[in-house]
Design a protein that fits this description.
The protein has 322 residues and is of the alpha/beta class. It is built from 12 helices and 9 strands.
Length: 322
Amino acid sequence: MTKPTSDQANAAEHSVELPRFRAYFLHPKFWATWLMVSVLYLISWLPFRLQLLMGRGLGKILFKLMPKRVKVARRNLELVFPERSAAEREQMLHENFANNGIALFETGMAWWWPDWRMNRKLSVEGLEFLEQADAEGKGVFLVLFHFLSLEVHARMFGLVRPSVGLYRPHNNALMEYLQTKGRNRSNKYMIRKKDVRGMLNALNAGEVCGYLPDQDYGRNRSVYVPLFAVPDAATTTGTTIFAAGANCTTLISTIERLPGAKGYKLKIMPPQQPIPSGDETEDARRVNKEVERAVNQFPAAYMWVHRRFKTRPDETMPSYYK
């Protein structure tokens, strides 16, 4: 379906200008970054199965080198899965760090693999929901979650439907250049994370816009609703702002790394309960139910190193992480 040219032009006005290569990137301060990126680039051309094995090995090293992150992940698993034994959670923790190692090499795949190589590892389920939104002349508010394969997820979704994403700059100028270029490889453009109007314009122009509502973004525009066994997880109300503020359909997308180096299955589906509901707190509850549904399918693949429950309803309450 052809979208109105004026709407698309209005939406594109909010897009982030892609950074250009600068001679400044050759400064010695970036040599360590160049070395790391060059090694990652070379590894990305190795066989997929070998990269998975190397990633698992790297994960064991990260487990030893990142004790603070290990502590955060262990505590998150205690909070989320109190019904599981300590031994079960510890096994999940080690598997999670194996996936953290794999995620680094998946970043190289997402940024540098040609389309034909990505397509060989991609299977898709739920494409009909995108087609239905097209038929209805609506944009798609696409809710994703912070699984460790997120870079591959974004690249592969872009192969199915080039999309619009939210943008947060990197502190390292060279990494900013490489990251932005890599993330735009199969997608349309990015919008600054606080540019609400830009996102609404893109949705009204019929674009697919990705959004990740599953981290702790602080007190601003948050409500406190249950997530797993935690009764008061700070959850953004941004979902309601976008889902209710534009002519769009809300869909959920997840990605699964298939066993045996077979590749990935990209899933697109409607939420179990409609979003928006008419109430921002209820929307936050429904989003967290979607997080639970996804995490229960792939618990060791989620980004547990983030302090998801750091913001308490009252600042005087003790931290979950002490």
